[in-house]
Amino acid sequence: MVAATYELMVDWNNNGTFGDANEDITADMLRAEWVLGRDFASMLTGRARGTRLLVTLDNDTIDGKYSSFNSASLIFGNILPGRKVRLRATDASGTVTIWQGFLDRINPQVSLGAPKTALLEAIGPLTFIGQPWHEIFLPMRTNDLTGALIGAILDAVSWPAGDRDVDPGKSTIRRAVFGTHQNKVPALDAMHRVEETENGFLHESVDGKVIFEDRDRRLKAPYITSQVTLSDQPGAGEIVYSAISQLDPLKQIFNVFQTTIQQYNVGAVAVLWTLPETGADSPPIAPGETRAFVGIFLVDEDTNMGVDAWTTPVATTDYVANSAADGSGSNLTSSIALGTVTKLGTRMVIPLTNNHATLTAYMTLLQARGTPITRRNPVLVYAEDIPSQVLYNRRIWTVPAEMVRDTLEGKDHVDWLLSIYKDPRPTLTVMINGNRDATHLSHVLRRRVSDRIIIEAESSRTGLGINQTFFIESQRHVLIPGRFHQVIWECSGLPDTFPFWTVGTGDLGTTTALHY
Predict the structure, then answer these.
(1) Whole-prediction pTM value?
(2) CA gyration radius for the chain?
(3) What integer pLDDT is reported at residue 9 of this predicted model?
């Protein structure tokens, strides 16, 4: 039996390293299990789950190391959520990280008369970003590629730039706003909206990065080359699966695709905000004092989306000052100096300074003008295939891509999806025993979600009649150190017209199809 050596580390001291005392807990690891990738092996209906690492630890020690209430523990006070966790493996080909994320909890488990254990649970980047406190308000952005929007959302939750692998994106989103001042939105939900508009893939890497694949990534190197061939019997350059099963192909047939395109109007200059404090409540500005007022244009999910351009406030038109709160005193508007105005997607910051030597100025009028952006009536675009409906009945998929730029791109989007999903394609799960030999172990440790592979399952041993190219969509690992390391891959079969047509390559409509 061939086996790797494993290393499990926790940054108990939360200082960004794994080299401090007690941070190597490899000797206590009894069993580990984790999953990466989609919740179903489909580039259309599958969404990446937030990964979770489960490790059974030996807690049968004098100090009860992993019991958080045990003050004798060497890590007492440091069993806290958010500590980085890293699992690595070393085999004949070198050392690789096979999972990295953040500690969620450790629960001691005790059965009297049996060895004491503890269950360590750790979460990956998407689950971490999906925590309730990671809510955002992202003011309007215009004409951004999808990758830039993903980057902006990650910036909003202070996700490190070095822990990202974000493609630029192929779709340009005309306008996007996430949340409001009053109602922020979960950051993970915002990223999924961008993912759906791009028809891309948001997921996690084994070394703790957020990955955003645009819809072109799998059409480029290294994803156009198979990384390994899996077979039911040994052969040169192949690895052998120990079990294989076919998932229901009918679940992934869709012959009507539809999506709703939302566009917007930019209105004429109008008053978008007025200071509510008037009359006796007019706010004062003392002599020499500067006060900043923030005018907010209230956005909603039905009509108002934001402001295309704010108008710089004009004296007398947009602000008036008086020595009396009710406006009955001297007009002090000429004594008010307008500072540098800050204009944002839904608000304008208006700094005002009272330059009068002795008199307090009361702002009896203050307003903010701009050009509002409102939603137009939505437009539905769709594509359908009648021959597929005759064979498999009418199967509808509504594409949740409301930020697609216009109806032309929306039609390209649904036509493209229809070309892929109107006909059945195989979806397989395969089990690989990593301890069979060094080659099998290397692939178990190094194959990644989105890798392209070939699966042969046409011999009499399986009788599936399948020999074609697949993408790995998810991985489930089970590890008992020193005994076995097993992985189950869920794989989506490529359509017959994949890769899509490029100039000088393939026959359009025969071996390839249009891509958008």
Answers:
(1) 0.86
(2) 30
(3) 98
